[in-house]
Records
---
Amino acid sequence: MVARIFGFAAVAACLAMPVFAAVALSDAAGSYTISPAGSSIRFSVGKAGGGGLAGAFARFKGSIRIDNNDVGRSRVNITIFPESVATGQRRVDAFLRSDAVFDAANNPEIQFRSTSVKRTGDTSALVTGRLTARGKTFSEKFTAELAGLKAGTIRFHVTGKVLRSRYGMDVGTPIYSNVVDFDMTFTGRRG
Amino acid sequence: MGVAPYETPPRFAKAARRHLLRDPPNNGEVRVEEGGPGHRSPTMPALITNDTTRYGWAAIVLHWLIAAIFIGQFVLGVVMVRVSSQRTAFELIQLHKSLGFLLLGLVILRIAWRLGNAVPALPHSVGRFERRVAPLVHFALYVFQFALPLSGWALVSVSMLEIPSMPFNLFLMPDLPLAESDTAESFWTSAHWYLAYAGIGLVALHFAAALRHHFWLKDTVLTRMITPSSDHSAE
């Protein structure tokens, strides 16, 4: 098991992206703190007739730990502050923060705690975890794609779909889709 | 009820008997008529349309259906912008939009029906002043019941929120081809608001006039909008 020996990031670097080949395993493995500067959490919800509602969370924090010996034991924890939601329309932001959607006053955090990480390709992995929002917790899956690796910095592009109805946020369906598409970039700095 | 052999209102008994016996429509018209001077016995299909002496069921049902939705929409509109729960507000606004589109459809049908039907004459109890004013008020009521849903449609069409309209979650209603902007939205919001208050004021006047006719003048102005009933004093 090559993966077991080299670990997720290192294998990705060696097999797929010559750019990363120079990076030694010891450089990829380790604990990273997500840096808001190089990171973003964007989402969109489709609506009837095409187009959709797109926005982003400005404030969040998290950590990524890449296991030295076993990618499957890597961990990802993210905490989002829904109060920071921004869509470009102040009225929509107020609506999303209100009890209609996030109820940010009573539920100031949305949390993701990974439960398993599975490699799906040279530079990709499926991250499964427990997503908690508005007091409800469900298992969700996200696809992570290694997007950059430099000494001390690692970057992932993460995508996934979440059904909002499960979290008591089904307002507006079926005018607005129940499916929320997430498109996220996380830059982790060692430490 | 002399001729009717069973306990059925005379009009229906007459229609039923005629159907059974296959009488020609006018046969026995006067003989059976004992329901008072306000009653005639046209065949059932004829009760659907208006004639020069009375409103038919179609006009009556449209009148009360639109009245209920119009007043309900006013109450809903006032409530939906005042509820504290944003979720409830959103859902009430979508219901308001759904009922608005239903209202618009019914009003178009009603105007078409009005244009294609006889208009019953006013009873003699209606004075000269009312004879001049009532048609103006009625015309204004038509203008308001048409303009209100239309201005609401314009409002959602120009809103920067771009919330699609899906009447009763059944189908997607396209927006009116108007340019979106905050300025346009506040214009149509004001227009919709003023039209609503002026419209409900006019409805109140119309309602007060109907009550005056019924309880003060004791004529048929109100009752003929409840069931098709001819008023011979109008001829």
Note: Confidence is low (pLDDT under 50) at residues 1-40 of chain B.
---
Amino acid sequence: MALTKESIKKTLETLKGDIPDVIISDLEKELLNIKVSKKELDKIIDEIKRRYEYCIVEPGEAVGVVAAQSMGEPSTQMTMRTFHYAGVAELNVTLGLPRIIEIVDARKIPSTPTMTIYLVEEYAKDREKAKEVAKIIETVTTGDVIKKTEIDRIESKITLILDKDEMSRRGITTERVVEKLGSLKVEITWDEDRVHLNPKTEAPSLKEMRRLSNKAKEIYLRGIKGVKRVVMRKEGDEYIIYTEGSSLKDVLKIPGVDITKTKTNDILEIEKVLGIEAARNAIINETLDTLDEQGLRVDVRHLMLIADMMTVDGTVKAIGRHGVSREKASVLARAAFEITVDHLLKAGLKGEIEELSGIVENVIVGRPVRLGTGMVDITMKRNGYK
Amino acid sequence: MRIIPKKIEGVKFGLLSPDNIRKISEVRVITADTYDEDGYPIEGGLMDPRLGVVDPGLKCKTCGGRVGECPGHFGRIELARSVIHVGYVKQINKIIRACCRKCGRILLPDVEIEEYRTQIKKAKRVGKSELPIIEELLKSAKTPKECPHCGEEQADIKFEKPTSFVEDRNRLSPTDVRERLERIKNEDAEVLGFDLEVARPEWMVLTVLPVPPVTVRPSITLESGERSEDDLTHKLVDILRINQRLLENIEAGAPQLIIEDLWELLQYHITTYFNNEVAGVPPARHRSGRPLKTLTQRLKGKEGRFRSNLSGKRVNFSARTVVSPDPNMSINEVGVPMLIAKELTVPVRVTHNNIEYLKQIVKNGPDKYPGANYVERPDGNRVSLGKVKKIEEVLERIEVGWKVHRHLIDGDVVMFNRQPSLHRMSIMAHEVKVMPYKTFRLNLCVCPPYNADFDGDEMNLHAIQGEEARAEARVLMRVQEQILSPRFGGPIIGGIHDHISGAYLLTKKDTKFTEDEAFQILFISGIDEPLPEPILENGRRYYTGKQLFSLILPKDLNLVYQAKICKKHKVCKKEACESDAYVVIRNGQLLSGVMDEKSFGAFAGELLDRIVKDYGTDEARKFLDRATKLVIEVISRKGFSVGIDDEDIPKEASERIEEIMDRAEAKVQELITAYNEGILERLPGRTIEETLEMRIMQTLSEARDKTGTIANEYLEQESYIKGKDNNSRIMAVSGARGSLLNLTQMSACVGQQAVRGERIMRGYSERTLPHFKRGDRGSKAKGFVKACYKKGLDPLEYFFHAMGGREGLVDTAVRTSQSGYMQRRLINALQDLKVEYDGTVRDTRGVIVEFKHGEDGADPARTDWGRIVNTRKIIKSIVHESIKDESIQDRDGGR
């Protein structure tokens, strides 16, 4: 006797709360396609319950240490090569051990910030529209459109020869260049693709001229500041924009950008723009991706714990003496890690009390640690038995 | 009588006040001399007998205890003038700048001080650190030019490193500083972060210096009879000497200048006494020129007290020696050399039941195995059996309640460890198996978790001393309990190298053994299961390899998966696969497919994984023990060796490879010409040079891959068509050792050598070696090795190859230190987290880090490659009819 779909659904409904929803929805997907009898369904549910209960962590389990080991042990097998190509040959991305260390350190700026920008439906499929978005994002400086600079010592002027092809490719007009060059505070004349700069000072030295010409090459024309390079790639049937340099806040404002999928590898930026929960997810995903890329398998739960520890108090803290370890309650634990003497001296002024509840503290005083089997105490009533 | 140890409830830190120092001191040390001419300590000297005892046989003059009983007692030096404590100069600097020079109040109006006070209270209440608030207070109190309390004008105080303060070009002496700190009111000190119970600001400036007990700074008597004093004693002698001189000069009314000089010197000595590595202070040196190890140096760093003696401790009952393999042992066992078994002991309490046995053991003494090294009386006194003249006397006195420290015997539980201990599987519990010779023996399956090999690795063994510890080790740390790694929820213990090749040879399509052979193999590998029906061929009875392997599988096992050798064809032919990569096990019978790395290899073993998870660790251990023995026996019978002829490829193949190489080189030349002519198309966002490099690298690596495919094709043909097995290839394909890339490099082409991920660029200007023209960007000039290892590298190629190789070595060395430090930090940050009874993950403060571990409360070690339950698998096992398409079981590693 096969059960109807409705009755299966109903039975599964009753499981909610006992078993994680993921499993129930998995089960539903599987069961609706096959014939099951009531007896079989009960058996399946019993078995799943049994396995789930078996899987639950036992109280006292030293999950922190296990998580740290699970991430630390494979890291010895990772490569050190800082640069590696990740899908996009045109961009450099830090991977391997240096990247993991960077994430765990909660660095202010990652060594290779990149963004992966997804586009909303109508832009993603349309090459031209995607290109438009890419153009808005990419920073263009005068240096990008200047083919050559010439310094004329006799007339004391600098001539910038513009690259017309590059300009049309990037959609920059000569007027725009001249307008932006205005910030240099020099006299500007121009014809076609040549812009002449005349320093206002009398007989400027060569050094000054050179400095000026270099300055003229660094003037921002358009795009999002911080995004140095943009590469567009077709993946599946949609265009995705990869960038070198990151500025999430500005990119999210651009029309056509899919704000739900677009991401950056700068965790602190994510924290600033999207909040701490997003930063936590970013830490998990970034570490997981880095480990995956190296072919190392680590359970997400460990990475979650590490990410949670870094983000518990609402800001991203580094793993190490400046972050998590500085805020430990125990003086001895801090002293045993790093900067020993400072912690002891400070503790003296504050009159800190060492509760001796953590791991190192108990090791130091020579007692069993309060983890796992050490968590349990047995007491007996003195007069209970005779 | 056993002494009940006192339980430490907690430790409170604080400063020592001068009164306190005087109170705890037993001696006022006044003379810089330590011993008189007869070698006796001088009273009032640094080795005063009232400070404790270090010489055996003497009694302490203060407490009467002997060495070991007397903890030592403090003394003191009354300083002629106050001296600043270096550790607190920064703090002092901040405080005297924030306080009025006249009235000592914080330079802020009362309202503001109160504001800070409430803020601090609030922070303390919610468990936050008050330090940032105090920092802010100190910063804002620095600015006022006038005291809001007494109206006194404030002068600017400059801090001159290391220990002096200058106010308007007048140097503030430590005494001045101390006076100012004294003026700070208690209420203000509280806001400044002082715990008034144990600290007052002025205590940061010393007037009395505590002298640590002699037990803290024991002197060593050299062989020549000369005494060598501890570094701290040396430093204290210096302090005393200057202090004395300063005192005399003050009393004699010496000129201010001289006094100040001496004062300065006293400050220097006390500074270096506390910390000999203060920036800007020349370190005090020993006569030999070695910098002294003073208080800070004793505590600090990896070799300091904290990390070296408190967080890590030395232990007894441990042994260390070289490890070597023994495939005939169980994974749970460890072979212990007889010598070690006689040295390490286990305490056994004498009871009515074991008294006879233990007496026999005691009778054997320390030299005859199995014997005992000590007996322990109920009061804890030990008798060393090696030292007693007549063991019989001891024997007679032994009764119930005594303890016998007997030698290790077979079956004892010990802990076995290999450094670096990167994860919990680096220390596992094994059962002892006492063996001859001098190495620890271990089963090869446990090599992966320890990351051990036998090129001279040494490992440590710890004999467990208590019943509770032994029980815990046995239940939680036994090797078989650790088969599944908590890192990813799959097996980490499993077959390696020859196990895999052996299994492959055994279960290959056409492997069969005559009845005789089969019986021998099974006998040797200890398999006594009932045999299946043999197959008859030419009137002889044969057993197939698959039949033999099926004997060790659980009888009701059903499993389908693709083996490692699977080539991932677009259409899977399943059972008809010509490389026999489709594994089907039904009711414990291996019907099709070969056993390779994916069956029971460490990290990948699918079959092993199934057995541990469904049949338990006992079954898994049995399976591993028997499988490895079986497979090793098979491979030893068949023989398995690799030689250079394994990489032989026919002439035709070499020609094709040559051709590909030529074409690739031509293509490179083309690219270079295009670059030189400026017609090379630039990749977006790259310079033209980068583009060229990338294109060349791409071309060459494609060429190498192509040659590899060709070579592999021929090698494959060789093994299939001619029926000649190619052992090198078997190893690579089955996952036993090596990869196809290694084969390619041996038989076809080594490929591009890289340094820093680029072609080799360094060397002379515009060229790598003088053998090339300047500016040559050709493949050869930049480190492409066209030859294969078998053919041999020419000198230039060899040189480039060495460059690439060296980078690899440097890389490994750097990586180990970096990842080691990262792991230390991770462990330190996370070590206090544990799962509470309510399922939350909390730290010691009680802060909830996770409400449920990993969002679902699962223990990764118990999951199925990260999944709590594999619903499909369970449904399949219950609803048999639903198995229409016995598709490959899926797993997606937890995401």
Note: Chain A touches chain B through 115 residues (CB under 8 Å).
---
Amino acid sequence: MAKKLKEVLADAGISMDLQSGGKAPEMMVDREVKRAPHPRVKKLKDIYMDTLSSANDEFTYWYTREYMMHDSEIPVIRRAKALKTAFAHSTPAIYPGELLVMRKASYFRGSFPMPWLSEGFYMAHEDEFYQEALKRGSASVDEHSKFGQGGGNVTKSFGKVVSIAGKFGVRQEEIPAMLKLAKMWYGKSVDDLGNKYEKMVPEYKTKEQIMRSIICMFDSGYTLPQGREVINYYYPLEYGFDGIIKMAEELKAKVAGKADGDGMVGMNRLYNYEAVIIATQGLQKWVNNYAKEARRLDKITKDPKQKEEYKGIAERLEWIEHNPPRTFIEAFQMIETIHLAVLNEDAISGMSPGRMGQVLYPYFEQDIEAGRITEDEVLELLELDRVAKTSIDCFASTGVVGGVLSGNTFNNLCVGGLDKDGQSAVNRLEYLILEAGITMAMPQPTLSVLYDEKLPEDFLMLAMEVIKCGTGYPAFMNSRTAQEFLTKQYGVEGMNLEDVRAWAIGGCLETSPGVWKPLHLNGKEYWIPGGAGQPTSVGVHFISMPKVLELTLFNGVDPRTGEKVYEPHNKKLGTYEEVWEQFKLYWQKTCEVLALTNNIQHDIWRKNNMAVINSYLKPDCLDKGHLINELGYRYNGTFSVESAGTITLVNSLAALKKLVYDDKEVSLKTMKEAIKDNFGFKDAREVNSFSLADQEIREDAADKWEKLHFKALQAPKYGNDEKYVDDILLAWENFFCEDATKYESLYGFKMYPCQISVSTHGPMGSATLATPDGRLSGTTFADASMSAFPGTDRNGPYALLNSAATWDQAKSQNSQLNIKIHPTATRGIEGSKKLLDLTRAYMRKGGFHIQYNIVDSKVLQDAQKNPRNYRDLMVRVAGFTQYWVEIGKAVQDELIARTEYEGV
Amino acid sequence: MLTSEYAHGEKKEEVNWNKGELKALIFDIQGHSVHDGPGTRTTVFMNGCPLNCIWCCNPEGLFHHPIMVFRESRCVCCGACINACRYGAITISEDKKLIHDRNLCDVCKTTDCINACLHEAASLSGKYYTVEELMKIFQRDRQFWGGKGGVTFSGGEPLFQRDFILEILKRCKKAYIHVAVETASCFDTDYYMEVMNYVSWVFTDIKHMDAVEHKKLTGLENKLILKNIRTLAEKQDWDGFMVPRITIIPGLNDSEENIRATAKFVKEIGLEVINILPFHRLGESKYRQLGRTYKFAEQKPPSNEHMLSIKKIIEGEGLVCFVGYETPF
């Protein structure tokens, strides 16, 4: 008998009662409709949309003034005092309608420079310090990074507003003070001091050349020395600020004058605890100033509802200034305060709240049970948090903010994962977090699902529904793959199975170690996860793999600048193996030199600019009496070697192997000529598009290289489940993952591979000539590390995912695969299920990360032409979410070109 | 999607005229198909069809050999193909556009123009696959199907290449692969029933209930089709699932009379569902690329309201009706 419909629907998990068309469960139908945020949230969002990134120098001034006053102090005390004074003098800014308050600086999108890290880059172009910085080479990357036009970036000066670093607006009258403050740090900043000592590395000259040729993007020690880590909110939640001070006082008394067997740094514990007390007092004053501001606003406000809200804000702040929070909203305010405090302590991108839903769950559970709050009120707070997090700006040079981050600050919020006992950690609050991602579609906090087979099906389906809203999040990260990596990397520091499960994503997609801590609330104990590791994505930053290959082919000389970077190898490169071996040698030389120089920069940072606040929050600093600089964190082996342009390298090697060595279609000499001549095409900058598809042929070149270029484009490409090229990827991964562990960080631990390009594939591509795979000069590399080069994955998503799973991704801290899917392939409940099937299959094959961008390329093209009409449009690029209009043009071009998988 | 993406990048090879080993001509293979049966599937589009429906949206599927498709958007008018063509079939018009004499193309058994094109404007649609090659793709793809997915054979008409389809179906059965077909059911009944032994899910077209109209629209009468559908539906030991599909083409087969007749027939043979699909003209670009004109280029798809009114008629006959591709499967 033919099957009955009832059986078929039952197979698909649908009850026959739903009748034709498969009416969806109500919960789902709801979500298919785009819902609006709560009215107050909408108002605050509108303010955000109309606000420009603004910087001032209030914090800078007070910090510098206090710091300079204590030039004979012990560095950690000096730093704590400077921080205390700066926090205590920060002007509060509260906006009507806010429930969770406090901001980085006194603007809605405020931030400030930290010249103690690097003073050169925000100086006026004609300033002599800037010229000095230029000569050092590291500034040249700024010229290759362009911010997106539009959005909230102040790309050009106007009226009395001066544009700084291509993003921030500063009042004209503040400029002289800002420059004066900067000058006070000349020769003293981490950048300057680090440079002084890194020059003592015998091969420093090579490092300089590497930076100038943009083989590497950015020094590590003074650009964004912290971040890409998971914050830990535990101590303030459990003890409150007064409790922390009390604890530090007691511990201080215990260790004063004692080395306790540690003749090197044992005595430092006294000063460290003192610094904890000083810095915490600064935070209390800061909170108190906000409370006073709320009281002031209450007095001058007439609207009774708004008055009540100001009163509530003041009461909550006055409470958490001293005590541990008691309710959900107090706890939420506390973590907002802590988050901003940490971001103001240092130049930080990627300070992730981590598994916030699990941290706040105790308060949520008890408040809901007691009827103190409703789910709708919680949703509103979560929406407000999205406005607050999106308004966070990070002040750094254009090169860093535009080229790497696209203005994004990566406050990555994770949901899912396993709890301490190995069960699904998903809770009801995390459903609401996903929901707020739909109702309040703003880029931050970006969302990540820590995928595990144990997560509930309806939760995963809800995550799919969020993806389908076109927000670009959540990304899926594989909990099992991460746990294998963590075991491998942190086993030596004693990481056990429980701690392995406490991980979360720090920054855009860095696997970061965590711990469990017991939180007590009304007599009930909850184990909450939090960060316990040093920053990641520090160490050797983004090395342009295609550029290293270019220098391999050109005997150590950068053909773009004509300068010698590496010692010439003088080899004939007569076989593919010889090219591969030489490439590895140059790669190793690059890592070696950069590891040494960056270690020195970080060492200066840890001596003069160590974290105090972020540091004591993390286990086990308070227990040990040592901060980050003295290995106070539980996990310290977090430094990495970062690659960029993986797939462009792999495709280039495949093309070389095929055309030059296996098929002998062309000689290496001719291939090099073609590369130098850009296969007869114009320069990408001339065409003003960084997408390969838009490049134009030069008239004078006629058809000189046409055939070769065609063959290069036709050579085997990654992403097609083709062994020829996948084997090259495998060889690279096996080499890289092993090689990275040969370099040692300043903390004495092995480095590991990190494979995210963030946005560096744009600017790095812009400094790289044509590549043997047919990519033209100046155009972007393939993004991420596992995405195919735009348009070259011709065998569909299954083949791409199969190619990506060629290697053991647990060997690396991460890998990254972005895939654009047309909405037609995901429609309806069935579409969601099928997208989940695809995701699950990749995870089962050991894939670490997958992220979907469900948009129409026509929409994107129109958005590029008419950015003003698309201020709301969000895209996910290379591991994060951002407003389309804020993204640099090169990355926009690449997104448009990326292959779409159409389901119809 | 117009040319076989799997065939891409192999332009150098001479066209293989399917001799020796058992091979099938296939014009596309799509992973992550979400509208062609339960779960997520790999859909294989096979060449050849006994019918000749005037609105066909996959005209390249009607060919029994690989065929050159021309994408004008990629053409830079370099003239390389003109020089390469040994039949002189390609000329340039005054407004700098290539003109292909498709009558000459049809006798050509080479890929000269395709080999000469450096801009991928001329490419080949249709590639021969052996059973082994196809099975290798399925074995790879099955990891991504999830619990309910499988392979869907579509076309063209998947039953047209008889020896091959029987062989690949047997192999799929052995490999525990769930198989669906999208067929017009226009074959001799013995063969049709033999194939269905290996198939768990059938989408079958019912283009028109009236034999004369059917012949006008498709070139053949519908007697055999209806017989096959009935035989399969009534077969006691077949435990598959059959979904009759009607593509609604305004003015041609959407009369209440025809819809009601179809529904009555479906009900009578003991089936419960009809899936109605709105006509679309996406195939127009394919006709252009094949150097043909599409008579339905101006035909608008039926409105939602119209689709819903047809749904009502079908439901009135006591059947379940799914509209469009978004079924709950």
Note: Residues 44-207 of chain A form one domain.
